[in-house]
Amino acid sequence: MQRNSCSNDSDIRQKANVIPRGILLPFVLVTFLFALWGFANDVTNPMVAAFKKILLTSHFQSSLVQFAFYGGYCVMAIPAALYIRRFSYKSGILVGLALYAVGALLFIPSGMMMAFWAFLVSYFILTCGLSFLETSANPYVLAMGPEETATRRLNFAQSFNPMGSLTGMFVAQKLILARLNTTSEEERRLLLATAPEQLKDIQVHDLAVLRVPYVAIGLIVLVFLVIFLLSRLPRCKGEEGTHLNLGPTLKRLFSNSKYIEGVIAQAFYVGAQIMCWTFIIQYCINELGFSAEKAQGYNIIAMVIFCSSRFICTYLLKFFQPGGLLMYLAMGGLVLILGTIFIKGMPGLYCLIAVSACMSLMFPTIYGIALKGLGDDAKLGAAGLIMAIGGGSVMPPLQASIMDMDTFNLGFMTLSSTRTSFVLPLICFFVITIYGYRTSRVHRHQE
């Protein structure tokens, strides 16, 4: 039996199975969690544009939504890993669901206060819960069967994450962006100077629209909390012990170059993903003059491409090494981002949308490669990879600050600040390309 496995003796005789029969129902239940955090991620990305319009903030200020949202992952990952080590994966899932629900329901007082900082606190608490969920669910799925099929199993579970993401995107488009007051941002700024009370009424209405989906998902998460509380989840090998030798574990992790490089690559991947998906809306508004609701439609198209590509790439892993496929997809992302930067209008937007096909495989593949062979160290190792999601908190504000600048004159052509800002995702895909190459060449014996 593999060191980290929930499999029984029957499963050992069928080691080729990606999902052993004995853990099918628990696997299905845990897979629902991937959709739940996918919803939270992608109902939130368009809120950067929504808060900019409602509260009249700059690109940089509105992007602090992402700083608070993904900052929760970074701060809570290590405490979550220590908690899971002390108790169990199921306990970590329960804490995660509880924090998720609390953060979502805090949108009620945040909306009443009409304070941007209160929303940021709500997002932070919500994603502290998501950090617990991801730190629990990702390694738990890896451990639910033979190690040789762990990356494929995680890719399959992650394939349901975009379904939650698509739901979040549709909710953002139809239940939030489409229902905001139609008064433009320029007209609102005029009202701020001439009729502040009228502007306040508009803001009260818009914030009420914004908080309804979060309150609804908070209640749904509470239902899942009860379901998990009453469910029996199998314990994996290694969960019997509760003592964590932190020093020796960290020493082993820091001496593992494949793992350390994986954490770095994951941080750049998440940064690239959040920048591309968050600022599709800004690209559409600033470059093409679209409304936020229409722009969100293109974000949904990108997610459909992402979701479809995830299933295709998961199948291709039967025939290709994960590191090699990762490298080629990252190279594709590089080319498409160059198109976004240097090609004007709709073709540039099409390039930005197509990047999602290249990103579909990256998170679970980097995750699986980095954790493969870590055995009991995978719990703390998983925390490092969840901390890497903090890349999504740092990079979007940096890109937004570039968007707030004037146009850039390159001598042979002039680039808008919006298109120039995508140089940051370009750098991210370059880093991922290097990791894919090193995994398929340098670390090949460990993959």
Structure description:
The chain is mainly α and 447 residues long. It has one domain: Up-down Bundle (Growth Hormone, Chain: A). Helices cover 76% and strands 1% of the residues. It contains 23 helices and 2 strands. It has a two-stranded antiparallel sheet with strand order 1-2. The radius of gyration is 22 Å and the shape is globular.
Write the layout of secondary structure elements.
Blueprint: H1 9-12, H2 24-44, H3 47-55, H4 59-62, H5 64-86, H6 89-105, H7 107-113, H8 116-143, H9 150-158, H10 161-176, H11 185-194, H12 196-230, H13 246-254, H14 257-278, H15 280-288, H16 292-316, H17 322-342, H18 345-359, H19 362-371, H20 378-387, H21 391-403, E1 408-409, E2 414-415, H22 417-420, H23 423-441
Antiparallel strand pairs: 1-2
Question: What fraction, in percent, of the residue positions are helical?
Answer: over 70%
CATH homologous group name? MFS general substrate transporter like domains
List the total number of helices.
23
- Proportion of strand residues: under 5%
Look at the structure and give the mean pLDDT: 85
Tell the overall outline: globular
Instruction: Count every beta strand, where a strand is a DSSP E run of 2 or more residues.
Output: 2
Major sheet details: 2 strands, antiparallel
Which regions have little confidence, pLDDT < 50, spanning 5+ residues? 9-15
Order of helices and strands: HHHHHHHHHHHHHHHHHHHHHEEHH
Question: Distance between termini?
Answer: 19 Å
